[in-house]
């Protein structure tokens, strides 16, 4: 048998989570964000699960977009950073993609392009995040140039929030964006998962497209405020493995590299076939939750490249071969990816995206 670590992608959970997004989105249309290989879940697997219920997909790379077209998906596909060269502009048009334009050189490429068919464009404005986008004051000039181009099928106004999940919220950025909308009456797209779930009234509507990502995968966009379960989301990925070794420790004995954990009494320690080379966070300290044989326990000591240690002291029935859930799972074996992420000082986004290629992935219908 091969090494027992595996990731299971739950197609049903993906569909359920999209339905949660749709409910929040009301009349808005939904771009399911499948960038970064669908946050580690597999772009084709995820697209197939969501195809019947989404209005479109959003991602970064032309190659991923092409893979979706080759798999037969006719949906709108939005390139979230637009294209990176003039040559990509033609390829994007051939694939019938929608493009973000956030930068003058992208506009220049579009103006000088001869395209087989016109492109749908999202004109992106920097309303305060200071990452990508034009200044709002440039809107009239940009729209005048774009709207007269035969290369352009339609224009949607776009922005992105920096603190939709935090204290600040979206009010300040919204106040910068709203006059653009009022002046142009164009369709618009603003919301990531956090904004969609926290401020649906401000970011949804018949003219709106929303862009949920993380919530589709069953993690909370604001785990400190509400857990994924409280938001009605289900884990779309279970990372599981098995116990491959057991050690009996005496008081004072230590576990793993650096001897970071020291037993203060007799203990049973299980060794799990999962390490940071599988994508498990090395910074997860002693006490990170993990489920063994359907019961919650904790990790011990430092995570190694290929293994980590768990506390079996209160699980006498769990020995070599016992099933382990690192995150995902259900019932008593459920461990939220957000819990592991928080323990390791990161976010579930990073855990999912870091899933290593060596982990075998299977899909549950
Ligand atoms: C990644 C991304 C999203 C999705 O964000 P989530 O927080 O995962 O919902 C939406 N819009 C843009 C521009 C993005 O880059």
Brief sketch in words of this structure:
The protein is an alpha/beta fold and 365 residues long.
Written description of the protein model:
By secondary structure, this protein is α/β, with parallel strands linked by helices. The chain is 28% helix and 24% strand. The chain is built from 12 helices and 18 strands. The strands form 3 sheets. It has an 8-stranded parallel β-barrel with strand order 2-3-4-5-6-7-8-9, surrounded by 4 helices. It has a 6-stranded antiparallel β-barrel with strand order 10-13-16-15-14-17. Strands 11-12 form a two-stranded antiparallel ribbon. A hairpin with a 5-residue loop joins strand 11 and strand 12 (261-262). Helix 1 (11-25) crosses helix 3. The longest helix is centred in the first third of the chain and has 15 residues, at 11-25. Pyridoxal-5'-phosphate binds at residues 33, 35, 80, 160, 192-194, 211-214, 221.
Keywords:
18 strands; 365 residues; 6-stranded antiparallel barrel; 24% strand; alpha/beta; 12 helices
